[in-house]
Amino acid sequence: MSALPTGTVTLLFSDIESSTGLVQKLGEAYSQVLSDHRRLVREAVAGAGGTEVDCRADEFFIAFVDAESAVAGALAAQRALSTADWPEGAPVRVRMGMHTGHPVFADDTYYGIDVHRAARICRSGHGGQVLVSAATREALYGVDLGDAELRDLGEHELKGLPAPERIFQLVAEGLEETFPALREADLGATAPAALDAPEASAVPVAEDGSGEQALRVALAEDSVLLREGIARLLDDAGFEVVAQAGTADDLVRLVAMHKPDVAITDIRMPPTQTDEGLQAAQKIRERQPDVGVLVLSQYVEPAYAMTLLGDSAEGVGYLLKDRVSDIDEFTSAVRRVAQGGSVLDPAVVSQLVGRRRKADPLEELTPREREVLELMAEGRSNEAIGQRLFITLRAVEKHVTSIFSKLGLTATPEDHRRVLAVLAFLRS
Question: Is the whole-model pTM more than 0.90?
Answer without folding.
Answer: no
